[in-house]
What we know:
Blueprint: H1 11-16, H2 56-68, E1 73-77, H3 80-88, E2 96-100, H4 105-110, E3 114-116, H5 121-127, E4 132-138, H6 150-160, E5 165-169, H7 174-177, E6 187-191, E7 205-209, H8 212-225, H9 231-241, H10 244-264, E8 268-270, H11 280-286, E9 293-297, H12 301-309, E10 315-316, E11 326-328, H13 340-345, E12 353-356, H14 362-375, E13 379-382, E14 385-388
Parallel strand pairs: 2-3, 2-4, 4-5, 5-6, 10-11
Antiparallel strand pairs: 1-7, 6-7, 8-9, 9-12, 11-12, 13-14
Bound molecules: pyridoxal-5'-phosphate (PLP).
Amino acid sequence: MSGGNGKSYAMETELVLANHKDSFNSSIVPLYQSATFKQPSLDDMGEYDYTRSGNPTRTVLQTHLSKIMKAEYSFVVTSGMTALDVICKLLDAGDEVIAGDDLYGGTDRLLTISQYDTTNTKLIKSKITKETKMIFLESPTNPLIKVVDLQKITDYAHEINPDCLVVFDNTMMSPVLLTPLDLGVDIHYESATKYLNGHHDLMAGVIATNSKKIADDIYFAINATGSGLAPFDSWLLSRGLKTLSIRILQQQQNAIKIAEFLSKLGLKVRYPGLKEHPQYELHKSYTKGPGAVLSFETGSIEISEKIVSNCDLFGITVSFGCINSLISMPCRMSHASIDPAKRLERGFPEDLIRLSIGIENADDLISDLTDALKIAGAIKEVDGNLINLLK
Length: 391
Ligand SMILES: *Cc1c(COP(=O)(O)O)cnc(C)c1O
């Protein structure tokens, strides 16, 4: 079968090549919707016995993901939060852990640990000690779109404590734009609910590492708790994954146009693809692109609510990474679980609107936003020019 010769190809090619051993030579990976597997004999367990411990459909997906994530080992679990929960099981009670202060809302809810502005490399360095066992990083953060100096923090943490595990949430970039294990990160995880699958028809999480010890511990936790991804979801994710590159590149191309449109209107836009982003150069230095999530402010919660409510193509939806464009107000939706006082302290604008750009036609998306901005009273058209009314 093509791609079975052990040769490595470019990302776009690897994404569509998933090797499997099917006795009928099926073109795509077969779905083994079976909880159990018969043993060849009483003395021989065979390759698979029980789906909680292993399933051929899941194995094919994991092998495929290892190639995509440039990892020795990878695992798929029932959601991104499950991935984080499994990783937390590598810790012992009382271990010193550091995390960023603009992490995903659900991560924030799960972790009650020291959180700092991880874009402040100097500050983070001052917090890392020989006792630090784990560091959680995410970049660009969501929805404030802050960029972390991943290489510097990873190198410094390993210098201070070679056993410190640097854990990176790569959900916003996906392996098409960043493979963080290449930068020396110990564990790369992602919510596959977002870009990896891309169609919002399943929930999944992936964990990847180059360390056999970490991989063994992670497998132990997954097998012991039964958090491995179900066969059907593994099969669906295998299908979604094949179009990852083409989706991301189209979404990113659209996002760049939309960010430029909003920025030209004089709105405060947060997007690492705009030169005005304070960490434009840093982000560019270690990723292959700015991605397709951006946020902007209007200065008024009421106007923001009206914009969100009056879009037609942008669905009011939590989450991101779908082929369809999505719009949300994080303070009212995904980040509502963060205490309002904590949001204020972190400089979280309550009027912030987040856009996750899909694969639609960019002009249609811009026209949809223009209509919503007009209805909300944020802009008006004078002699064919759009005038910002918010200033
Ligand atoms: C969505 C998300 C998660 C959680 O993943 P689920 O699949 O929803 O459990 C974790 N991190 C980031 C950055 C996310 O966007």
